[in-house]
Design goal:
Blueprint: H1 11-17, H2 33-38, H3 44-47, E1 53-55, E2 67-73, H4 78-83, E3 91-93, E4 100-102, E5 107-110, E6 116-120, H5 135-146, E7 163-169, E8 172-177, H6 184-189, H7 201-204, H8 215-221, H9 227-235, E9 250-252, E10 262-267, E11 273-275, E12 286-292, H10 295-303, E13 309-310, H11 320-325, H12 327-330, E14 332-339, E15 346-349, H13 356-362, H14 365-373, H15 377-384, E16 390-391, H16 405-409, H17 416-425, E17 446-452, H18 456-470, E18 475-481, H19 483-491, E19 497-500, H20 527-534, H21 546-559, H22 564-581, E20 588-589, E21 593-598, E22 601-602, E23 608-610, E24 626-627
Parallel strand pairs: 1-11, 2-12, 14-23, 17-18
Antiparallel strand pairs: 3-4, 5-6, 6-8, 7-8, 9-10, 10-12, 13-21, 14-21, 15-19, 16-20, 22-24
């Protein structure tokens, strides 16, 4: 067995993590009583596992009833679904984000070198349609993801070809890796790890050729192009099929297919969690997510009191004054969140640009340093963020165990004179009639930046920076574009620059180090080198320079150990190289954020961490939210 600090503990200790001893007997929501009396629904003790998960409420045991209202933006806002009703992974992050604990799995074991992960399921656990949930469902999901033919959006960070699944018995499943992976449990607990408990074999098997030879015909009869599209849309991260059995606290009633404006959920009578008094969760009867087309509509719903618990899209510094002022009339309150992101906006020059002249210029470290020195972050903070935040680079937050002061603070002062000196030192001394410097090729230095139109603050920041860079002779052509176009250009490596949030500011830095070395497709500053690291097989893939290859080798070394102290030391080396290389240009360290909650809502967290990998609010157990009488 691994040591405790390697996130594996004894079986006895793991069972203790599931909650305190339970009072005798179980209770159910009153709305289910009629179905039980009519014989169309089994009694609550027959619907629960033999050993249900016992949840200790944040504040108090709740009461049943009510509807939780929130909003979705557009037709593909599945992130909010996955973070709220959908966070029921095999193993989960605890509320404090300090360790991985059992969740759907009753317990787990890890061998000494982190190559073998054994998960014990709950006897009698059922899907939302009442069918048994067993190890066969886990193997089915893993087999689909391992299938070379499956072309859907696979969960990031998992090497399928190096992973096998074995059903030991109906309640025991083992995953064996070809090589050690000390971050495997953390990935399973992240928002991307939920794939393995999202696909019921008895329902989704009809779309998988290894289970059903007629899978392709079945998929086409259901309106899909192929079995791969069908299984992606219905069984993993999408929610277009409301009939799909789930393990969530609420089961889907209406499909999220772009046609329904209101996406509805009702309580899952087979949900496997109870509170400390034996009340089956969730407390809230229904969840409603209204589909809107823009953030302004969501803000209006917030101030009108039509959003009960959410911070999706609207909880910005810009919107905070009007939302704050509307608390009394709207019947809601604001609760703080702790932002784990380390930057409001990171400017990423394309260091692997196909244009050799642009690549040569962008790869000059002094050029990037000059752009950073020519950025007035205090103006950005005052104008865009109402004075909240501080100048900061793309680096782990000061409160992170991985904080690197050099990486975080270098070139954050506004010093256009120093910036001009650096640019002159590169030989970029000639300017055109508009005062724009000429590049190595004699052409005006013009950097094109498309910012996603659904992220309003990005464009506001970019317009300020465009004016600031004129002073140092750089033309930034910043304009809005649909996110799909922005990412199409990145994936084609045809972009000059990209702007995005600073993910990876706290513990998530280990799982998502995209800004610290070319790690994933989100490393827009070095798409070709990232493709090389990912072994994507893409024609874009290109071997990186030696110092970047060293970072990649160090990260593989980090993954191969389960010792947390060793991981921290190795990651420190990676960050030191990132400081030397200075890949991307940060702007502002985010201040704490907020979430809106109905004033009558109970068990609402205060200060919960906000980030993607730790999918706030999921780990706070949304099934415990309730309306006070």
């Amino acid at each position: 067995m691994l040591k405790t600090n390697s996130m594996a503990v004894s079986l006895t200790a793991l069972l203790a993590l599931a909650g305190p001893a339970l009072a005798e007997g179980y209770a159910q929501a009153p709305g289910l009583a009629a179905a039980v009396e009519a014989g169309t629904l089994p009694p609550v003790e027959d619907r629960l596992p033999e050993n249900p998960y016992v949840l200790t409420p944040l504040e108090s045991v709740g009461t049943y009833g009510g509807t939780w209202r929130s909003a979705l933006k557009g037709t593909y806002d599945t992130g909010w679904v996955r973070r709220t009703v959908g966070y029921q992974p095999l193993v989960a992050y605890d509320y404090e984000w300090t360790k991985v604990v059992p969740n759907v799995a009753e317990s787990f074991e890890v061998n000494e070198d982190a190559t073998e992960f054994t998960f014990h399921l709950r006897e009698g656990h059922k899907w939302s349609d009442g069918e048994p949930f067993t190890a066969e469902d886990l193997k089915f999901a893993l087999d689909v993801m391992r299938s070379p033919a499956y072309g859907g959006r696979k969960a990031s960070g998992f090497e399928w070809e190096k992973m096998t699944g074995e059903v030991i018995d109906p309640q025991t499943f083992r995953i064996t890796l070809e090589a050690p992976n000390g971050l495997f449990l953390e990935r399973l607990a992240s928002v991307e790890g939920q794939f393995i408990v999202n696909a019921a074999k008895h329902y989704c098997g009809k779309y998988f050729p290894e289970v059903s030879p007629d899978a392709n015909d079945t998929a086409k009869a259901a309106g899909f192009d192929s079995w791969t599209q069908a299984i992606e849309q219905t069984c993993f991260f999408n929610f277009v099929d409301e009939k799909r059995p789930l393990l969530f606290a609420w089961r889907q009633v209406t499909p999220y297919d772009g046609l329904n404006q209101l996406i509805e959920w009702e309580r899952n009578p087979y949900f496997f969690k109870v509170d400390t008094e034996g009340n089956q969760l969730p407390y809230i009867d229904k969840v409603q997510m209204v589909q809107t087309e823009n953030v302004e509509d969501i803000v209006l719903k917030v101030v009108n009191g039509e959003i009960d618990f959410s911070n999706r899209h609207f909880a910005t510094v810009t919107n905070k004054p009007v939302i704050y002022d509307g608390q009394d009339s709207g019947g809601y309150t604001l609760k703080s969140t702790t932002d784990a992101r380390m930057n409001h906006a990171i400017f990423q020059l394309n260091l692997t640009h196909d244009d050799p002249e642009k690549r040569k210029l962008y790869n000059e470290r002094d050029f990037r340093a000059a752009l950073s020195l020519g950025m007035d972050r205090e103006e950005i903070i005052d104008v865009v963020f109402a004075g909240q935040g501080e100048p900061y680079q793309a680096a782990p937050r000061p409160t992170s165990q991985f904080y690197n002061e050099t990486l975080a603070r270098q070139y954050t002062e506004y010093d256009p004179d120093a910036a001009n000196d650096l640019l002159d030192g590169l030989g970029l001394t000639e300017r055109n009639g508009d005062g724009i410097r000429l590049g190595f090729d004699g052409k005006p230095i013009r950097i094109q930046l498309f910012s996603p139109s659904d992220q309003i603050e990005f464009n506001d920041i970019a317009q300020l920076v465009a004016e600031q860079w004129k002073e140092i002779g750089i033309d930034l052509d910043a304009r809005n574009a649909e996110r799909s176009l922005v990412y199409e250009r990145i994936q084609n490596n045809s972009h000059d620059m990209h702007i995005w949030w600073g993910d990876g500011g706290m513990s998530d830095a280990l799982l998502d180090p995209r800004f610290y070395f070319p790690f994933s497709l989100e490393s827009a500053y070095a798409q070709k080198w990232a493709q090389h690291f990912m072994k994507s097989g893409s024609t874009l893939a290109e071997a990186p320079p030696a110092e970047i290859q060293k970072q990649m080798d160090l990260y593989l070394e980090l993954i191969a150990t389960a010792d947390k102290d060793a991981q921290k030391a190795i990651f420190g080396e990676i960050l030191d190289i990132a400081a030397e290389q200075f890949y991307a240009i940060g702007t502002v360290l985010p201040a704490d954020g907020y979430i809106v909650a109905n004033a009558r809502l109970g068990n609402v967290p205060e200060g919960q961490v906000y980030t993607w990998v730790y999918p706030q609010p999921g780990p706070m157990e949304t099934a415990q939210l309730y309306y006070k009488k």
